[in-house]
User: Which sequence fits this backbone?
């Protein structure tokens, strides 16, 4: 590519207490280039872009933007210099309207009427339809992202940072997003694209800078490398393959039928969800975030109870029971959010072992806590799942994401469930821990348990599951065998491009 | 600029040190306040914190320590359980008043009968009255989502009016020459809550407070329900995942703290107070909130904090007599103490650094 | 005659302290801060305002002093919750206990003194009532039609997002807390200077807590605050009228009315918010949550 250089970082460094988040990071982005920033969770991508956007100040090195020194004191200064950013967890205000959200993302917004008009113009120009008067709370994930993008575009950025933008999109929606990005690049906007999705980067990005443990491993042309090679650069080792062998499918263990969540709650309603998981089988449930995953795992774990006959474990109706009786019966779960849902951050690992182990492990007979047995249970989990921690007295919050996830999943597996439901088992976890967790789930199934893996990571689902079903707007598709399923087919099962058809035509 | 870095776990010694630091800071700030008001700060602080125990009048004031600490500890033990769960019962004062009224009602109904059953029945009635008054905010929160903070607090005012009505109306002593206020229960042996050991100030309420300390310690550190209460306060979703039903917890915590506050009210009405009067509520229910926090929501801490705040009550009265310090000095002290405590608590959750930080 | 002009004036006057305090708290809560210290701020405003009015003979000086005192006391809350990140519920309670103690201590010399007379205003209605009424549309305009108001709502709705966009979450909240403190101080001073006409210990008698309930009732909207304050004023006046008319219900039971009414209103509005999700009137997204910018 023969582009003029727009942005350059030289020797950037940032240290947090105990962590060198960025160390001597240097790279450059050209005008009109789509430049990927590639790395595992915790590799320092977020810290790096926050420095460019003025949210974090580097303690070493410097940046240049369009020939001038770039050292923004805050995001206002960064925006004034021509940097725009679309956040991974949207920086939107649910109770406010689209127009108000956009006004908050601009430093000198025009009067209301004029702003609405400019929103309409930009929406039309880039095929991103938006109604300025709608409240954010009523928008889908794809629409919310559109608000973020339009908000950036109204500032006329020279450098647009996108932080994991496709993690909430179906494959088709992602395609539409890339069409928009290419259009912007053609007009000379530089795009810094953060992701860990290798195929996506190989298909759409001009160059990729790979970060590992806060340092630049190299800047490469992603099209010249296989996904496997890129992954090796990212992780620093060959990816470990999981062992799927030796499993036999038996009779149905967990049966769900006609599961509909009661009205009146926030979020997505489950509509007539039904499936059966057999002994030794892993059922993968895919879907874009916010399509009912939280509600589904709550309905299975017993946090929400259902009508009789909706959740059955080998013939026993568990529908009306809470989490503890379900655990006693053998139906266990591990929710997505480690800190605050699957574990209490401030409590020690021992206490967190008690959180779900109390009944099934007999740790609190007659209500009386057996502290010795609880500690021993925690130690067994730590040993069996290679949880790196000073000891069972350590608070959960001080463990790394991967180690805590190993503990949380391990806690359920150690209780020998007859059926286990997990949501996003490897979200935000380093590659080594992710491989260990996947293997543990496969081993559990090999031992004859029924396993349900809910995940937004399609690669993970294809790797683990025997059958695949898609959750879309609270409805679950009929499970199909994973063997021979393509990403495109899955994308269509996930609901295709939610309401993005209009955009497609306009683009 | 101050910069706070969260710490995953506080060093053990800090947990003990921060309440002491808060007390010390309160003494210093209080001393400054006294100096500004023209009092000798050293003498004032000594009068409040030292003289009640070791001064010339200690013979009179020492028994008062248990008399004041009893209700504070009894109420604070219940409150602390709820605060641990993130359930904010601010209306213990109201539950205390209602417990006093229902307990006294049993005695007044039985008067002039004699019998060993009367006093135990009063204790049960007092606990039940406080429990019922606490269940109102609990049920309104569970059924309608109404804030238990505001409802329990509004019910304090309602209870105060109720006490006034009782004193002027239904419970007025028929032999009281038209004066407001009920019969004096101390002069009714079957219903009286006397000093059990002469010169100690210990009455049945003090015994109940001691039992409450042991019982809540057992609940919070040995029983699974206590574990669930702590989990619910720290991470409500994790507690639900563990099998805790929030509505049950709300009812349990408000019911428990209401019952304990109600008992405290009954012991007061039948003991040191002796009768239901217009101003029966004397602020124990609010001071107990400070006791609970100063004791770090831990039963043993509450025991010590209750004794300390009882000391400030007695010392305040002493300072009023001997130095003409305003009576409300104690209230200011208590408010300051809570401020300093909350401020110093930051030390246990964060490391404090000076200088410009990341954000 | 239950509703004549005098009664109406009484109602509006009785509603004014709550109106000021609840408007202030609505702004504070819209910025995402739950300040349970309104009662303490009001009582301090009541004493400071009364003392200043008594010393200068000017009620205007009294109200200005009350606003300053309220804002100053609120700064303790701001320092603790925003700088030292203390729990907002506990800190608000401490503020109330501290304010009640402080005024009991310093208020003694002022007991039994009569307040200087409030000068009349247009239509025989004093100017504090007019100010209160004017603040309702002004607060609405500020929140919904100004850039500062938009930023304040943004900070209250999602403080992480506001921080990510470069807004000074803490500064916005400290400013809101100060404004809320000043308004609560005004409300308190109105009680001592314009309603009771003297200082008595604990005279706010739960008005601050009622203001907190009114904010919920109002759905965090200034017009709703006005409606809630008038509803409260109506209940108060009705109860006073019934007392005066010698209804055969003990005075003590009648005087429970404002508190019981507050509970009933709180229950009704909470039930509506609980069972009819969506639409306006929901609590600000970050209400009561401590903001700490990590990384």
Assistant:
């Amino acid at each position: 590519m023969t582009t003029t250089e727009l942005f350059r970082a030289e020797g950037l460094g940032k240290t947090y207490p105990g962590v060198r988040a960025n160390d001597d990071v240097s790279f450059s982005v050209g005008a009109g280039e789509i430049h990927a920033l590639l790395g595992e969770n915790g590799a320092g991508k977020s810290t790096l872009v926050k420095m460019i956007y003025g949210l974090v100040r580097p303690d070493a090195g410097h940046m240049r933007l369009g020939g001038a020194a770039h050292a923004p004191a805050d995001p206002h200064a960064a925006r004034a210099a021509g940097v725009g950013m679309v956040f991974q967890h949207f920086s939107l205000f649910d109770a406010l309207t689209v127009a108000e959200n956009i006004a908050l993302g601009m430093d000198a917004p025009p009067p209301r009427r004029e702003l609405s008009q400019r929103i309409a113009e930009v929406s039309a120009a880039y095929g991103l339809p938006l109604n300025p008067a709608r409240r954010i709370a009523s928008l889908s994930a794809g629409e919310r992202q559109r608000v973020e993008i339009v908000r950036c575009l109204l500032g006329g950025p020279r450098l647009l940072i996108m932080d994991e933008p496709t993690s909430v999109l179906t494959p088709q929606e992602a395609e539409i997003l890339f069409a928009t990005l290419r259009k912007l690049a053609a007009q000379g906007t530089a795009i810094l694209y953060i992701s860990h999705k290798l195929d996506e980067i190989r298909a759409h990005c001009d160059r990729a800078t790979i970060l590992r443990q806060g340092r630049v491993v190299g800047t490469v042309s992603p099209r010249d490398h296989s996904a496997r090679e890129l992954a090796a650069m990212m992780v620093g080792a060959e990816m470990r393959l999981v062992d799927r062998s030796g499993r036999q499918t038996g009779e149905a263990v967990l049966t769900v039928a006609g599961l509909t969540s009661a009205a009146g709650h926030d979020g997505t309603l489950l509509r007539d969800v039904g499936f059966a998981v057999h002994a030794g089988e892993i059922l993968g449930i895919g879907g874009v975030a916010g399509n009912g995953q939280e509600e589904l795992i709550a309905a299975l774990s017993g946090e929400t109870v259902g009508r009789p006959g909706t959740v059955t474990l080998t013939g026993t109706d568990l529908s009306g029971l809470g989490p503890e009786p379900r655990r006693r019966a053998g139906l266990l779960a591990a929710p997505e959010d480690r800190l605050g849902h699957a574990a209490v951050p401030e409590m020690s690992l021992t206490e967190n072992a008690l959180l779900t182990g109390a009944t099934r492990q007999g740790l609190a007979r007659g209500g009386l806590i057996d502290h010795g047995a609880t500690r021993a249970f925690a130690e067994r989990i730590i040993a069996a799942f290679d949880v790196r921690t000073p000891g069972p007295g350590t608070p959960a919050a001080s463990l790394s994401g991967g180690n805590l996830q190993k503990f949380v999943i391990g806690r359920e597996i150690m209780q020998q469930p007859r059926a286990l439901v997990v949501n996003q088992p490897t979200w935000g976890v380093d590659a080594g821990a992710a491989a260990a967790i996947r293997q543990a789930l496969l081993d559990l199934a090999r031992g004859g348990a029924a396993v349900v893996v809910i995940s937004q990571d399609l690669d993970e689902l294809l790797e683990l599951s025997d059958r695949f079903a898609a959750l879309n707007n609270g409805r679950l598709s009929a499970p199909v065998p994973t063997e021979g399923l393509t990403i495109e087919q899955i994308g269509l099962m996930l609901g295709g491009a939610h309401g993005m058809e209009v955009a497609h035509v306009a683009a | 600029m101050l910069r706070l870095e969260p710490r995953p776990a506080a060093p053990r010694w800090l947990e003990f040190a921060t309440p002491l630091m808060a007390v010390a800071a309160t003494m210093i700030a209080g001393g400054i306040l006294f100096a500004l008001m023209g009092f000798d700060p050293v003498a004032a602080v000594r009068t409040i914190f030292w003289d009640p125990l070791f001064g010339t009048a200690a013979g009179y004031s020492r028994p008062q320590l248990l008399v004041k600490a009893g209700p504070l500890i009894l109420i604070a033990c219940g409150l602390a359980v709820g605060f641990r769960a993130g359930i904010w019962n601010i209306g213990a004062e109201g539950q205390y008043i209602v417990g006093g009224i229902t307990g006294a009602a049993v005695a007044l109904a039985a008067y002039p009968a004699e019998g060993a059953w009367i006093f135990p029945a009063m204790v049960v009635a007092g606990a039940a009255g406080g429990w019922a008054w606490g269940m109102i905010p609990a049920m309104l929160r569970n059924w309608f989502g109404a804030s238990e903070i505001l409802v329990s607090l509004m019910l304090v005012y309602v209870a105060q009016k109720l006490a006034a009505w009782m004193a002027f109306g239904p419970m007025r002593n028929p032999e009281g020459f038209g004066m407001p206020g009920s019969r004096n229960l101390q002069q009714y042996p079957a219903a009286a809550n006397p000093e059990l050991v002469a010169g100690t100030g210990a009455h049945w309420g003090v015994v109940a407070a001691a039992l409450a300390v042991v019982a809540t310690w057992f609940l919070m550190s040995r029983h699974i329900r206590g574990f669930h209460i702590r989990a619910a306060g720290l991470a409500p979703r994790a507690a639900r995942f563990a099998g805790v039903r929030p509505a049950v917890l709300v009812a349990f915590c408000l019911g428990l703290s209401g019952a304990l506050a109600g008992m405290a009210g009954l012991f007061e009405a039948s003991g040191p107070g002796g009768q239901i009067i217009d101003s029966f509520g004397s602020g124990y229910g609010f001071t107990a909130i400070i006791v609970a926090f100063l004791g770090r929501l831990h039963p043993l801490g509450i025991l010590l904090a209750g004794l300390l705040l009882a000391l400030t009550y007695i010392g305040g009265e002493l300072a009023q007599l001997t130095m003409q310090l305003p009576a409300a000095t104690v209230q200011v002290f208590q408010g300051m103490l809570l401020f300093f405590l909350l401020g110093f608590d930051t030390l246990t959750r964060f490391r404090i650094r000076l200088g410009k930080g990341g954000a | 005659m239950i509703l004549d002009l005098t009664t109406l004036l009484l109602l509006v006057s009785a509603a004014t302290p709550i109106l000021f305090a609840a408007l202030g708290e609505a702004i504070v809560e819209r910025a995402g801060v739950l300040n349970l210290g309104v009662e303490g701020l009001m009582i301090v405003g009541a004493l400071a305002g009364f003392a200043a009015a008594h010393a200068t003979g000017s009620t205007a000086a009294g109200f200005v002093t009350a606003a300053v005192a309220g804002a100053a006391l609120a700064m303790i809350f701001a320092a603790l919750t925003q700088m030292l990140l203390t729990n907002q519920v506990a800190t608000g309670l401490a503020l109330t206990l501290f304010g009640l103690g402080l005024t009991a201590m310093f208020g003694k010399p002022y007991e039994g003194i009569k307040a200087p007379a409030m000068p009349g205003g247009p239509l025989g209605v004093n100017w504090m009532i007019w100010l209160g009424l004017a603040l309702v549309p002004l607060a609405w305009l500020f929140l919904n039609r100004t850039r500062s108001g938009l930023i304040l709502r943004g900070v209250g709705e999602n403080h992480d997002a506001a921080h990510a966009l470069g807004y000074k979450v803490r500064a916005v909240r400290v400013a809101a807390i100060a404004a809320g403190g000043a308004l609560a101080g005004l409300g308190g001073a109105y009680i001592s200077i314009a309603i009771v006409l003297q200082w008595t210990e604990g005279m706010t008698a739960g008005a601050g807590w009622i203001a907190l309930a009114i904010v919920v009732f109002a759905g965090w909207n200034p017009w709703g605050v006005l409606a809630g304050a008038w509803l409260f004023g109506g209940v108060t006046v009705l109860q006073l009228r019934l007392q005066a008319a010698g209804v055969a219900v003990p005075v003590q039971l009648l005087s429970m009315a404002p508190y019981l009414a507050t509970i009933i209103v709180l229950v009704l509005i909470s039930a509506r918010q609980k069972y009819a999700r969506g639409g306006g009137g929901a609590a600000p997204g970050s209400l009561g949550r401590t903001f700490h910018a990590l990384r």
Observations:
- The longest strand of chain B covers residues 2-6.
- Chain B touches chain A through 22 residues (CB under 8 Å).
